[in-house]
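Fold this sequence, please.
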Amino acid sequence: MKRDHAVLLAAGITLGAWTVAARTPPLAQADLAVTRWLQQYASPALDVIFSIITIAGNVEVTVVLAVLIAVALARRGRMQLSVALWAVFISGLAVEWIVKHWLPHPGVPESLRRPGVNILHYLVRTPYSYPSGHAFRTMLLATAASWLRAKTSRWKRLLPYVLGAAVALMGVALVYLGDHWASEVIGGYLLAVLGIMLLVLTGRSPGS
């Protein structure tokens, strides 16, 4: 338990430090360089593929996924974890909303945004764009999904890789499309790590 609290503290400190660093000129230059590097491979086909990927991180979609995962956990006798997942999910949405209205962190300019088909992603606008809610929700729910017991040993071995690839692809898609800077995506991932550690402290037993 002490180790879990130490990791939780480390996650909080890392998120705070990264949030401060994300506002510095050197990281802003790195953000721009990463976006331009990814977009050198831009094409209409990639625009469509990556924008479809980002749909999985929309609030409308992740709310449904969170419900399904929470129900599945409850049905497996893990009610405490199910409730905790919803608490962390909602709290994360609140933190994202507050920070995007409070922390000055200009988003990607329109000149670097790629066209896509994820129309719902642009319905709600906020003054700033740090951290990435898509990154937060994707990583949090992918981790929670990995705690579900697989029906076959083969799928149990493959599941972490599939979910990990989904999380990574979401991050790449967000930066490629110009929806978020890389620093904002990393901020979303770090927020998810903080949430995951809070779930661990509810008494989750990995692999049980």
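The CA atoms of residues 146 and 168 lie 15 Å apart. Residues 2-200 form one domain.
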